[in-house]
Amino acid sequence: MKPRLISYKLCPFSHRVAIVLQHKDVEHEIEYIDYDNPPAWFLELSPSKKVPILQVDGDAISESSVINEYLDQVYPNKMHPDDPVALAKNRIWIQHGGQCTVNVLHLAAKGTETEFFGTLEELRKNLDQVEPAIQGKPFFNGEVFSLVDATYAPMLQRLGFLDEILPGILDEKRHPKTIAWKDVLVAHPAVQKSSIPKMRELYRKLLWKKHGYLSGFLDKSN
Known about the structure:
The protein is 55% helix and 7% strand. By secondary structure, it is α+β, with helices and mostly antiparallel strands. The chain folds into 2 domains: 4-74, Glutaredoxin (3-Layer(aba) Sandwich), CATH 3.40.30.10; 84-220, Up-down Bundle (Glutathione S-transferase Yfyf (Class Pi), Chain A, domain 2), CATH 1.20.1050.10. It is globular, with a radius of gyration of 17 Å. It starts with a strand and ends in a 12-residue tail after the last helix.
């Protein structure tokens, strides 16, 4: 039975799992759920409506970092380092990536200029910690695309979309290595293949629907 990923179309946490499935070339199915009108069977799996959920042979696994660890253990093309210390450090950065992703989710929803730039500064401080840790050869650990890369790619992709709408969100002087890393990740085949069709347009529609601070800039950007 193929693994089945249950997701919302624009969920960055689910996108992490889709990237790993693509990178490992795992045959799988994806079912997208309507957040506002989820089916009863999904609510039985996830009463809180959280995604991603990975169904495997009748079992359901939740939490993107847990799912990706499972996939890395079961399928070839290892994405975690073998060295125990390096592995532990990668897990720390994956956890930190969750904080950065939440920052970006909040950026999309903040309604006032003060709230928006307060959240942006929180994100920038979190990226301040990431910046010196990036080896830039070209991935986080060096030459090998890792679970850390898969974790940060959706967040950085969406951050790039936001920077198109309001240039300067990405601070080239403060985070040059992070921006270079973003460009490498966004172009990676696994990230490209796992991105839903017309993602940029759908993300902009989501921003407009939220009517937050950024929605006022949508008609001023391409």
